[in-house]
Amino acid sequence: MSELQEMTPYQLLGGDVVLRQLVDRFYDIMATDPRAAGIHAMHAPDTALIRDKFFDFLSGWLGGPQRFIEKYGHPRLRGRHMPFAIGESERDQWLLCMFQAMEQTPMDAALREHLEEAFYKTADFMRNQG
To answer: CDD domains attached here (predicted)?
Structure first.
């Protein structure tokens, strides 16, 4: 197995610095793209805390430090998202923001493709509306 195959997505992305860029870009797009108004409205006006939580979650989800689990316990993603009505439209708005953020974050094309598929599966799993 090559060294590249042994690296986690977190490492391939570039670790904390690039992950923070991705998270910040994601929330900046959500706040400014009118096509994401529905999911933007689900968030508090001050996104500092949710940015940090999402950074912590993605760190572990991508194979890096398990910060979210250390701070908050198991992510329980569906449970944490149940208070919000999430259908196909909300899923697609979320993906729009994430895919744009990934396009604007330096990463290998193969990693981007892998993450797009993983993010789609996860976002689709969050749906709790028909």
So the answer is: TrHb2_PhHbO-like_O
